[in-house]
Amino acid sequence: MRQLLTFIRKEFLHVFRDRKTLLMLFGLPIAQIVLFGFALSNEIKNSHIAVVDYSKDAATTRLISRIAASSYFDIRRSLAGADQLQAAFKKGDIKMAIIFPANFGDDLQHTGKATMQVIADASDPNQATTITNYLSQIVTDYNTELAKDAGQPMQINPETQMLYNPELRGAPNFVPGVMALVLMLVCTMMTSVAIVKEKELGTMEILLVSPFRPIYIIISKLAPNLLISVLNLVIILLLSWLFLDLPVKGSLLLLITCSILFILTSLSIGLLLSINAQTQQAAMMGSLMGMLLPTMLLTGFLFPIENMPLALQILSNLVPSRWYFIIVKRVMLKGLGITAVWREMLILTGMCLLLFTISLRKFKIRLQ
Amino acid sequence: MRILIFLLEKEFRQILRNRQILRTLLIAPVIQLILLPLAADYSVKNISLAVVDNDHSPFSQKLISKITASGHFRLTGYAPSYPEALKMVEEDKADIALQIPNHFERDLVRENNKQLYIAINAIEGTKANLGGAYLASIIRDYNNDIRLRRQSAPPQPATQTPTAAPALPPTTTPAQPSPPSQPANQPPTITTSPDTPPAVEAVSTNWYNPLLNFKLYMVPAILVVLITAMAAMQSAFNIVQEKESGTIEQINVTPIKKHIFILGKMIPFLVLGIILFTLGLLVGWIFYGVVPAGNLLVLYASLIVYLFAMLGLGLLLATYSATQQQSMSLAFFFINIFNIMSGVFTAVDSMPGWAQAIVSTFPPSHFIKIMRMVVLKGSGFSDILWPLTAMALIGLFLNTWAVLNYRKTS
Predict the structure, then answer these.
(1) Could you tell me the pTM of the whole model?
(2) What is the value of ipTM here, to two decimals?
(3) 8 Å CB contact of B125 and A24
(4) Do the Cβ atoms of B133 and A47 come within 8 Å?
(5) Which residue in the set B212, B324, B339 is minimally distant from A129, CB to CB?
């Protein structure tokens, strides 16, 4: 036991000696929480648009001023002809163009119907859909107003309520994502590199010939990363509570328990990677390419999993962060209790035990 | 010059000899480019909906079937009460809860207006935003439908007129500017009865990606992400590796000039970057049918400027780190922030001003913009002048800093 404590101390010294890496380990979550929390938003506002008005009458003027008054649109240009549109779109100046044909007002008055053309830059399909919809909302409002005298019959008024995140901020979705990502990074990458480094530098031989048990080597390697991860977790939770107004709604104890479960799972993955890698570079690339990108993508915080092809959906079940992400969302954002997350916890426990057993089995006590 | 050639020969040999590195540099990104766009589908099509139908009238049934027929929504089930439906949202069984209140049909006919209650899980902002928008436009459509059916005295279900809401999926028209006075898809003009109020109709067209294919949008950006990882990380690793193994000392004692040494480190990765980019374009074409609409020369010129900037970043990071672990964590720090902030996933335009200012110093944000503009819209040199210049300036800055900070003597 004393042996183990001495070794853990050695590993701590190793980790805390390297100030630059340490700075990154703590700087990354802080920078991410601040940047993502404040900067990312899913709301689309102030889209730059251009207006081509061939009619220039009272009706178009009223419609244009309505559009200009909306916070969704920012009328950047008023073009003289539609032939200039292509150039403006290609330059990326505008996201949408609205064209009022000649005699717009006359048509509206005499035939009771007038058509305006809306062209959206659909290279970003979601943005195009959203802003087209905003515009048609404005047009519908305008129509309702026109019809006020005629008395618009049978009006359905949808009352929409955005649950959990009324301002559509990016933060509620990204904070759990950043938690999963950062914990994964610290645990997987740092652990895998820590062990391979000893192999690469040749100090592993010394460890192996010592009377020290292999399980102790592993535990002492994991201990500092576990501590750093827990510290990171606390920092992230504090930051999101203080700055992003995202307190832990559910039980803090439950969240921390689940987080430690996830951390242990990630540590086991790092262990497994380091056992297979021969060089630091291979371990890093392995954890970056092999673990990190799939984690980012298959966790579900960037892209909805239900949109993926079936094979990828099945694959995503194997990614631990997917389950952790669900837990964090439920406990932290929705404030649900253990009854809502016990299944996910069970899966994580299973993964953790399985991975740890495999790595322990495969951990070579001979060099070749 | 001769020294540079020798140095290049050395670097190329070192890279080519290590199969593992080559695999991670070229093959892994290609596989990722094949797989990732499948995962990176941000289009919203499977929004699950829980319905509370307290009315059970033909009206409410028609509304529900109209919503499910749109293809954007999947009916997960009927809930007996609104709290039950909200519970389904809470448990992630449904994204949206829709309540059709008691006497929906009766009140609509008698009192001429009636509320519908919609609750959307807004944790995933994009989904909530689009889901709400789709639902609103379907309800608007439906509202117009029932109005029309009421108004036209002899019921004419056949006159399906395009309504004020944009038709979803959108009306597809060729991506050419059509004369504005005659829109390509002029809706059938309907003879209006005198009591129909005047109405403005918005006919929407989607240019450059008329089928709203999300992969067209993602493939160019993912290619940039992959190149970013390769360029910034590998160049940093490569130099730090020499530091760690001590071979850099040997080079430092030779009369090789700083900038020659740095050029020798950069050029191989520039070449690898160009090869990777070409492979990526081929993959995009073969697997996803993405063919750049613009000039390839513009793309490659921008690529070289971009690689110059990112390799400069890699060099700079290398000068600040002593071990591979340090360079890795530094590079990871930047790459991670670049990837999420540069507009791959969320639009830069909707960020606050200060964040946009920060993002404009990230080279990937400019290159992603250029890629999307050239590949999708066929923009030319004059259109991308500003992002290209910005990238070049950032590259110049980073490289100058790296060269100044790189010391041959410690």
Answers:
(1) 0.77
(2) 0.76
(3) no
(4) no
(5) B212
